[in-house]
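Subgroup meeting minutes
Present: P.N., E.W., G.H.
Scribe: E.W.

1. P.N. recapped why we're keeping a running log of single-chain structure predictions: easier to compare across weeks, and new members can see raw inputs and outputs side by side.
2. G.H. added today's entry (329 aa).
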Amino acid sequence: MGLYSSSSTWRSTTGRIAAAGMAMYAWIPRKACMKKKFRSKVRRIVSSVQERDGLLRTTSSKMLAFLGRNCGGPEGSRAVMFHIGRCGSTVLGNMLDEEPGLYWDSEALYPRIGRVRMNPGILQAEHFDRETYIREIRRRFVNAGQRRYGFELTYDHVHYFGITDPKEAREILQSLGIGIFISLGRKNLLRQLISTIRGRQVGNMHIDAGDKKGLKMKPVDLDPAGFSLYKDDMPVPLEEHLAKRERWLEWNRQVVGEDGLHLDFETHVLQDPRVGYRLLCEHIGIQPQELEPSLRRTNPEAVEKLLADPQAWRDRLSGTSYEWMMDAD
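Output recorded in log:
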């Protein structure tokens, strides 16, 4: 990660000052008068930072966006990979990031979007528009320096900034010097959904290749008749969750277009991520290295083993186009 790896850098300033102040406060000799004076001073500092924090964030973001115009490699050499999550993007991204001449920025907009998912009120409090979207991407180029820049996007990430037309989404990225487009999907959307839910349960989506223990995750215990994934979302039936993911995949494919590279988890990642990695290198225009995947599969068990009540899920999908997913890898 670069020096300015996320927009949370400035947002955390207040918290860091307060935490440091309270830590020092604990070491002050236990005289009430001294502690009272110190506590008052910390409050004044924190208050001052809070007043400047909004301006500081905006100014720093615009400055980095300006600097980013001359970073991230030549126009047209930058790459973007669209995916839906839980489809092998991280293991492939980690392998791409080993290339000395390429800076792979993973889900570059996730820090900002993640705050909205956990705190929906932020969506109204902060600017999420086309101009901010462009600036948020361009400022990330600074991390790459003179290396080529690559990153990942999902429909969710783009949608939060009010951009829902695939053609517009592609044109904006091309205006930023991004000329290499990739989509990574997954055929078994039921497994993608279950993997998302289980990862959220433990707050960790990945397992290192050398980790023998793995993650301690409970079977998914949700009613397939209706459930939600994020706070304040309305519960919807299982089949609607899967239909939504189908729409995401199609949207991604439209943005990437016929001239892009289209991969899927089952064909290019599941058995050996190096298959997808080599195709990515060829498409991006870099020489593949002899690398071992840094992560191993998180949920290799049969679908029925991943659910608390597999029969209820099977009954819900019976007769639908998703029925096959209960028994497929």
